[in-house]
Amino acid sequence: MEIASGRTNLDTSRSEESIHLITLLEEKVKNGHLVDLVDRNSNDMHAHEQDVIQMMKLAMWCLQIDCKRRPKMSDVVKVLEGTMDAESNIDHNFVATNQVNFGIAGNATPSAPPLASDLSGPR
């Protein structure tokens, strides 16, 4: 996402609602404005805008909170090679905002902090 958008994941020089790239991604995809994230300062990104959007869709597939819904690395390679399309049925919530979302393995409780494996799973 950093390459496609031409910005870092965390950019404190931006307005509060666009400091975090992944939160901004959530907003743009839900509003149907994914193209707004394409780096306008890169002629190459602009010239290949549809390819960049396809890479963003692949990134979103990989960013899903539920690690079971993320692609295998072999599937990522197939998408990059053009022999497979990225999954289109994606959960567009990429940032866990409450503890319920962290309980991927189902063993997180309010009295104990979640394990690192529960927080993100393999990426």
UniProtKB/TrEMBL annotation:
SUPFAM superfamilies reported in the protein's UniProt record: Protein kinase-like (PK-like) (SSF56112)
Protein name: Uncharacterized protein
InterPro entries given in the database record: G-type_lectin_kinases/EP1-like, Kinase-like_dom_sf
Keywords: Lectin, Signal
